[in-house]
Amino acid sequence: MSSPPGPGGPDLAEVLANRRWVRRERPFPHVVARDVFTPGFYAGLDAEFRRIEASHPEVFRRDMAGYDASGSDLDRYRDGPLGVFVSRAWHDLIAGVAGVTATGDVTASLHHHDPRAASGWPHNDLNPGWFADPPPDPGAVRLSSDGPVEYHRGTRPDGTGAHETIRGVSLLFYLANVPWQRGDGGETGLYRAGRPDALAAAVPPINNSLVLFECTPFSWHGYLANADTMRNSIVMWLHRPKADVVERWGEQSIVHW
User: What are the DSSP E strand ranges found in 215-257?
Assistant: First the structure.
């Protein structure tokens, strides 16, 4: 596959290790992949994440209510190797794999769980997100930080245009962790629809691997408590037009903040 590089970013054809990604249907459709990037490119991602953790620990904020983790927006690191995750080529690849017509609006962050972090609550990510106008061009992406629009509720200065979207694809990419072993915990738990108490699958946080899925009323998932090892990941969402969600599942399906 040949993909155009983003500004200053790599050509995905050169850094993707393989396209042998596996689609699973239960408990809801999702895709898992290991050895996502070539060893050399992954080493650069790993080193950059560790550098940020070590040299700028203050950027990891614990401001996610009810979530035992800290995070930092990826937008400030878009000029380094981590910028691949906010490139248009990566956006279009992930949207195509998930089968979602995405708008080019993206949120992405670095996530860190300390050892013995508590489990998160099951949720489906079918949430709204506001972005500054104009919408991104077909070859570009727009991050929630690109403009003075508050992502969760759309508050903004008078005269500032904005558009409302809904999260369309969730993706977690695992990196900068010690080798994972069964019993370490820290997996992404997947739950049966309508049964957020019924864990059906667990995706382990193996370095250079990912899990992604379309955000729907049925995509229940959550963090599973880890033991004595930390867990690091990149978490990102692609967005879709609100009208698509309303037409498919109804206005009441949207989970407001």
Answer: 221-223, 231-241
* Strand, coil or helix: 135: coil
H/E element, 171: strand 162-174
Please report which helix (H) or strand (E) contains residue 142, including its range.
strand 142-143
| Architecture of the structural domain at 12-56+66-253 | Sandwich (2.60)
Give CA–CA dist 81/47, Å, rounded: 10
Q: How many residues does the chain have?
A: 257
Question: 125-164: per-residue pLDDT in tens?
Answer: 999 999 999 999 999 999 999 999 999 999 999 999 999 9
Rounded to 5°, the CA angle 210-204-116 comes to: 120
Whose tokens are 């009441």? That residue is: 252
How far apart CA 154 and CA 127 sit, in angstroms, is 13
Structural Rg of the chain based on CA atoms: 17
